[in-house]
Amino acid sequence: MALQTAKRVLGVHEPQDERWIGDGFPTRNVIGHHRIGHEISPFLSVDLIGPHEFDRSGERPGESELPFKGLEVVTIVYDGEIEHLDSKGNMGKLGPGDVQWVTAGRGVVFEENHSEAFTDAGGRMEMVRIWINLPAVHKLLPPKYQLFKFGGLPRVDLPDDAGSIRPIAGTLNGVEGPALTRTPIALLDMRLKQGNPIRLPFPQDWSVMLLVLDGKIGVENGQSIDTGQLVRFDRQGSEVEFQAHMNTRAILMAGEPILEQLSAQDGFAMNTQEEVISAMQEYRLNRFGEVTQEAETAVED
Q1: What is the pLDDT along the chain (301 residues), one digit of tens a residue?
Q2: Among 42, 93, 148, 177, which is least packed by CB within 10 angstroms?
Q3: Nearest Cα to 190, choosing from 226, 225, 215, 220?
């Protein structure tokens, strides 16, 4: 019996109703562990922020201080500009093409706001936020902040003029993305041209998802994945196959599942409910620190 090589489509997921995070981030969840469980592990959730047109304003929209523990939060900006500040003294400004990777580890609090320039001018905001679980062995590591500017990310041109891919994490055609990850993960930002089929290899048993930001992608049996939709692939098989039906922006997420018990609530992803309750208590006791502009001496591992 021949081995299955292409990962088959398991389902297509639509963005949910919009909710606002603070007054700065109109957010739609596309897929999450609360609805589908371990089937997307190591990923916990995928959110679309915008696209949304903001008017000029005299006050900076944003989100107030939010606590996190036991997970990672990845933000990819396509339009707009935001500023990050957290309880470990990390500060970052993200504009179009920039990527931020926050490893919460044993606990961090951060806030994010529209930049002053974007607030003054107004304009279009569009981002993607990806939540990633940490295995138990890494949940208590010191928090880590990574910021990758657009010009610092590598680019891989696909054969037959099929487009280009920016590896944020993982390796593609021998080109390694710069993000330090705690479990094997590939995160690929793709600009695809209408035309030839694309085949990308991934290990057996990895979870693979493809989110279409703008455009249309064809997968097996002639099925089309449209703007805002996410397609989830079977873990069996050693590659994914798809084809852009028009010029398309998309994100591919792939990773080795974390086969552990999971209890997650709000910004806490632990192994048991007791650990989640304990994390909430730690935050209330100010154990994660406070958001200030004074940098804390980081403990690197």
Answers
A1: 345 689 999 999 999 999 999 999 999 999 999 989 899 999 999 999 999 999 999 999 999 899 999 999 999 999 999 999 999 999 999 999 999 999 999 999 999 999 999 999 999 999 999 999 999 999 999 999 999 999 999 999 999 999 999 999 999 999 999 999 999 999 999 999 998 899 999 999 999 999 999 999 999 888 999 999 999 999 999 999 999 999 999 999 999 999 999 999 999 999 999 999 999 999 999 999 999 875 443 333 3
A2: 93
A3: 215
Q: Please report which helix (H) or strand (E) contains residue 77, including its range.
A: strand 71-79
Query: Cα–Cα–Cα angle for 258, 262, 268, nearest 5°?
Result: 110
What amino acid occupies position 296? E
Global pTM value: 0.94
Q: Report CA-CA distances (Å) from 1 to 4, 11, 67, 90, 188.
A: 9, 25, 51, 54, 33
Residue with tokens 């990390």: 90
Alpha-carbon separation of residue 260 from 21, 42, 142, 219, 257 (angstroms): 29, 10, 21, 31, 9
- Token pair, residue 262, equals 């999971």
Radius of gyration of the chain (CA): 19
